[in-house]
Design goal:
The protein is mainly α. The chain has helices at 3-16, 23-48, 52-68. The protein is extended and about 40 Å long. This is Ribbon-helix-helix protein CopG domain-containing protein.
Length: 70
């Protein structure tokens, strides 16, 4: 599932639940986000032929740099 599909899924789930959102639905969305993130990081790891751990460290470092500027 790519990010565009994930965003559509989240939008649809939010629209469908437009009132009370159940905890199980939140957990389902979080699981999808985790799955997509893992798959993206894993594919980057394979393309760059680097350990997944190093890719995750780089991603977190970039995330911190980006939001420290704001």
């Amino acid at each position: 599932m790519d990010l565009e599909k994930l965003n559509k899924f989240i939008w649809y789930e939010n629209k469908k639940c437009s009132g009370d959102i159940k905890m199980s639905e939140i957990k389902n969305i979080q699981m999808k986000v985790d799955e997509v993130t893992h798959n993206l990081l894993k594919s980057i790891s394979q393309r760059r032929k680097m350990p997944l751990e190093d890719i995750v460290k780089d991603a977190i470092t970039e995330y911190i740099r980006k939001y420290e500027k704001e």
